[in-house]
Amino acid sequence: MLKTRISGIEFENPLILAAGIMGSTAASMNWILDSGASGVVTKSFSKEPNKGYKNPTTVEVEGGIINAIGLSNPGVSNFKNELKLIKRNRKGTTQENGDKGIDSKIAIGKEISDKIAIASVYGSTPEEFADVVLEVHDLVDMIELNISCPHAMGGCGAAIGQDPNLTYEVVKAAKKLSHVPIIAKLTPNVTDIVEIANSAKNAGADALTLINSLGPGMKIEINTGIPILSNKFGGMSGPAIKPIAVKCVFDVYESCDIPIIGVGGIRDYKDVVEFLYAGSSAVEIGTSIMYEGPKIFSNINNELKNFMVENNFNSIDEIIGFAHKD
């Protein structure tokens, strides 16, 4: 009943761990998978190690948190060891895309019936993205391109995703080398997210993740007058951004015909249903794990199944895009 499909990949339910929360080690990601998530997105990593920003890197605000971690990571060579230890069970074979050639062999029609591993990667140039993709595409089921972080260093993150031309070039470079589906994670901090979505699609993206954190935002300590975060500003996540995320999904669904993964402020099954109604095929959950723990995945799955039975939905496909019906 809860199964959903994205770019030929079957997920046992629509709940996925979002990048940035509990995605640094295979042990924590396997814990999330054992807790009911159908897939996990790793913490974003790059070609070379990156220390990120010094502490404090997160601060709680009304409606969520602001974070500026700076995309800290050990680099792809070190992180590959964690990828190899993620629980995942693959079935079937890949199918080549004749229009693109052997270098763009992807998992069209690939049957996967267990847990899905998604690598979140970033860089500052199309070449850097391509290098990382080439290192990991045989170790995961999908790759999510982080072109949307609002506090990234050195021309990474939103500096790319706010430009339709740069978005196109990064997605194109990654797609050319990947044997697995490519997902572009987009920022809401743009004039027209539909334009960016279509640039990613035209470059060959197999799916989109909407949205990354909002902002940047800031919190100042009133006794000292000093911004709390070491970077001064960061990205806002949590329940307060959910209405914006839902609207972004709704708009892109109407104009861009590739699957969407919704993310932003999800706390319970009602939030999941909203994202599905708006056009998401699946959702990612992050900040709420800090409050509810990994059990949030099994709780939502149970509640979502009850909702579907009570409202005569036989499958997730019947819910996707429901808000667009006349």
UniProtKB/TrEMBL annotation:
Q: Which InterPro entries match?
A: Aldolase_TIM, DHO_dehydrogenase, DHOD_1B, Dihydroorotate_DH_1, Dihydroorotate_DH_1_2, Dihydroorotate_DH_cat, Dihydroorotate_DH_CS, Dihydroorotate_DH_I
Which cofactor names does the annotation list? Answer: FMN
GO cellular component terms, alphabetically, are: cytoplasm
Q: Looking at the Swiss-Prot or TrEMBL record, what is one Pfam family this protein matches?
A: DHO_dh
Matching PROSITE patterns: DHODEHASE_1
Q: Does the keyword Oxidoreductase apply?
A: yes
* Chief location bin: cytoplasm
Q: Give the active-site positions.
A: 149
Q: Does the keyword field hold Cytoplasm?
A: yes
Binding-site residues, FMN? 43-44, 146, 185, 211, 238, 264-265, 286-287
Coiled-coil regions listed: none
What chemistry does it catalyse, as a reaction equation? Answer: (S)-dihydroorotate + A = orotate + AH2
Give start and end of each Dihydroorotate dehydrogenase catalytic domain. Answer: 1-308
Which of this chain's residues are annotated to bind substrate? 43, 67-71, 146, 212-213
Q: Where in the cell is it found?
A: Cytoplasm
Q: How is the cofactor bound?
A: Binds 1 FMN per subunit.
Look at the named UniProt entry and state the broad enzyme category this protein falls under.
oxidoreductase
Q: Which SUPFAM superfamilies match?
A: FMN-linked oxidoreductases (SSF51395)
Q: Main role?
A: Catalyzes the conversion of dihydroorotate to orotate.
**UniProt family annotation:** Belongs to the dihydroorotate dehydrogenase family. Type 1 subfamily.
Q: What is this protein called?
A: Dihydroorotate dehydrogenase
Species: Methanobrevibacter cuticularis
